[in-house]
Q: What sequence folds into this?
């Protein structure tokens, strides 16, 4: 008889990852679900995954609601994500990751990153002895916004989102033995202005990056999913109020609390799917009359 194995997946999306951050904190603090068997996270959601597995749930909220909405993180003209500030200043100095607790987690985690030379996806995991901060830097290195690559183990890597989509992440979870997959999707596809910007950036980029981005935009997010695994997807019920590089505090907070609200509104369904048992309520003792 096959042992049930639950996987948690969070998608990328730059600042849209505030949605997944809110959902993750709510799963951990309100529903008590903090130790999936597997966790696969892409791009901007990788930091939240690491803090989640280290038990630093308050730090996830602090990161997204206090530090992220800042001009020091994003500039619009030209569009730039100051990734080194995010990793070196916010994550390393202001709210450091508890690497000992992350190393001790029993959850098997995976992070997709893209080999800049071959265009293929490599997965970093618990078994890969890379510095956690450099893994986060590589995973978040959106080619058009970071303007460089991150070296890990002698290779140059960029954001894994340019070589994988959600269907790939789901298949990866199934390959690793997942029988049940809970997906938190920040967005389903590029639309409108974001699609035009992606085309512009693609055609102004080196050939390898151009081909990867165009291929990704042509693929369907949810095509050819495995049929022998239970999948539950939670995502925004209407468009998020921000885009990949929005840094307006009100909009980031709104996206974060949309993730919170969507988990709570589906609480009973999620608890059944993840087999979360609520702690029994203590019986109230009758008050004695004086």
A:
């Amino acid at each position: 008889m096959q042992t049930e194995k639950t996987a948690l997946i969070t998608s990328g999306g730059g600042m849209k990852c505030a949605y997944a951050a809110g959902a993750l904190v709510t799963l951990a603090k309100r529903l008590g679900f903090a130790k999936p068997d597997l966790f696969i996270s892409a791009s901007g959601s990788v930091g939240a995954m690491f803090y989640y597995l280290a038990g630093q749930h308050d730090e996830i909220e602090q990161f997204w609601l206090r530090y992220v909405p800042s001009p020091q993180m994003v500039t619009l003209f030209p569009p730039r994500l100051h990734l080194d500030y995010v990793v070196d200043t916010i994550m390393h100095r202001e709210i450091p990751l508890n690497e000992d607790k992350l190393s001790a987690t029993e959850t098997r985690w995976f992070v997709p990153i893209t080999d800049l030379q071959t265009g293929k996806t490599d997965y970093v995991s618990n078994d890969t002895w890379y510095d956690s901060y450099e893994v986060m830097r590589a995973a978040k290195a959106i080619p058009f916004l970071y303007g460089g690559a991150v070296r890990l183990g002698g290779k140059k890597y960029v954001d894994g989102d340019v070589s994988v989509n959600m269907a790939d992440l789901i298949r990866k979870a199934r390959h690793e033995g997942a029988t049940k997959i809970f997906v938190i999707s920040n967005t389903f596809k590029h639309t409108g202005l974001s699609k035009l910007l992606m085309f512009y950036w693609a055609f102004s980029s080196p050939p390898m990056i151009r081909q990867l981005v165009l291929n990704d935009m042509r693929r369907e997010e949810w095509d050819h999913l495995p049929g022998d695994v239970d999948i539950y997807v939670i995502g925004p019920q209407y468009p998020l109020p921000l885009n990949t590089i929005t840094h307006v505090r009100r909009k980031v907070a709104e996206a974060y609390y949309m993730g919170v609200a969507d988990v709570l509104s589906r609480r009973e369904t999620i608890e059944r799917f993840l087999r979360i048992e609520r702690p029994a309520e203590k019986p109230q003792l009758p008050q004695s009359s004086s």
In short: The longest helix spans residues 249-265. The radius of gyration is 19 Å. The chain has a mean pLDDT of 85.
